[in-house]
UniProtKB/TrEMBL annotation:
The keyword Magnesium does not apply. It comes from the Bacteria. The keyword Cell division does not apply. It comes from Romboutsia ilealis. This is Glycosyltransferase related enzyme. Residues 4-133 form the Glycosyltransferase 2-like domain. SUPFAM superfamilies: Nucleotide-diphospho-sugar transferases (SSF53448). InterPro entries: Glyco_trans_2-like (IPR001173), Nucleotide-diphossugar_trans (IPR029044).
Amino acid sequence: MKISIIMPTYNDSSTIIDTIDSVANQSYTNWQLIIMNDGSTDNVEDVIKQYIDNSVHKEKIEYYSQNNQDQLNAIRNCIDYIKGEYVYILHSDDLLPDDNLFMRLVKEAKANPDTKVFIGDLITIDEKNDITGKLEVLKYAKNKKILPTLMLWLGRNLYVDVIFAKKETFIKEIYNSYLTWNMPFWINLSEKADMLNVKSVDFPMLKYRLHSGNYINNDIGKLNVINGELRTVTRLMEFYNIPMYKIQFYIYRIFNKLKLSSNFSPLYFNREERNKGAIVKFVIQKRFGDEYDKNIFLNGLVEFYKSNISRKIYIKDIDKNEFIYKGKDMRLFNNRLLNNELSELYLYIINEMKIGFNEIVVSNKEDIDKAIDITKFLCLYPYVKVSLKNNI
């Protein structure tokens, strides 16, 4: 059984050697390491190439590079190079927890052939690789209370994105939910609310480095993270109505702090949420406070869900060169948003969100899928219908 390790890297020349070594030192030797340089501006490429040239594992290590597109695109662009039956994602500032991880994972995979993905706890380390603690991940449970709990927990991942997954599952399911739309890998909300067959293992899956440069510790990182959280919450609102949302959120937070979250069961109904506006505003405020209204997208989204009106907006033609964002492109979108560089099309839709609408009318069949993707990215799907203008 071959394992394909995907390693996106960006300006991690100071840590990547230790990360690669944690792979090279594995007692299980049937692996392939795919490194994707996401447009680094440091000397990480020279560091990697020198390592490969001097390594006894040079035939197992593949190096590729791309223009800076952010980590989800870096992972996506490794898909064509996967040769293994299982896939493991390892970021270049983290480490494998010990030399026998892959041996244990292969044993789990053989013992649980119907399981699509395996997850586990994380050991935390600092810049010097010293252990600082442990992040215990909620034990995975595929039951009916989990998805409404995810909605209640502000769309924040209940589990972890450190995964050991079957290649087929990685390409057919995780690729869409996580790598394309930046939502938790373990959910499928394409037609109905569903969960993947995942198993928690009883050993650590990663040494996770905590430092000031972590993704969430800056403004652009917060915007990127909340993009996926909002998409998750708004999609789940189609399926679940959670009364007393704020009260239940704080009760669940207490359960979570006491490490009793697995015992919590939210009160919910299997119907569309009635109080979308208040929930969306609450989710955003928990990340940004009242400062959110200075961001035209976040403010527009709150106003959209508060409006709840029937109204059409019209898009005459979508230029063939118009960039259509998906969840994987959230950093590009947020950078352009903050630098006042969004296209007229996106500015038009965001401004219309402040008024409210429930239908986008396009002039060409070719624009229907583009408009649907726009509603998905802006967290308006599935509450906005896309239709073709009747030209007769």
